[in-house]
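tool_call: predict_structure(chain=1)
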Amino acid sequence: MVVPVSKDVTTAFNWDSLPVKIGATVDGIAGAQPTVITVPAGKRWLFLGASFTFVTSAVGGNRILNVYVRPDGANSECIVASTTAHIASLTRNYYVIVSKTYGETLSGINYLLGLGVASGAVELMPGGNVLFDVAAIDATAGTGDNASAVSYYYKEAPV
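tool_result:
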């Protein structure tokens, strides 16, 4: 399920002249979800995408991955969820991109999640964030699941 943004969150700022930056979170502890990427004070980001590996534990049950984009840190402007439930003992590579179309594409163990933003861009203000969260569909699922460190791609400008 994907909920596209309800409004164009980009401004008239010229992002084209800025270099692409790459950041990474610390590898998560098994079962410790969610992972959050937060924009530092005094900065704004043009979020471009992210990649990570998700490994489900041997605990039975189904789970899905949700990605929330919250430009102001509180209100979700875009939510994308894997539509394929993950069973126990699986490894999946996720690639999250900002695009004008939204949805999920599966190829082997690789998933491509498009955020579906009308402008094709997401601007995050100071304190804005992107949250990666595993949701248990069955009550027993998710214990011991692990997402790798998240690599993320963005452009940065002062506020």
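agent: Residues 2-8+22-158 form a domain with the Jelly Rolls fold (CATH 2.60.120). Proceeding to next step.
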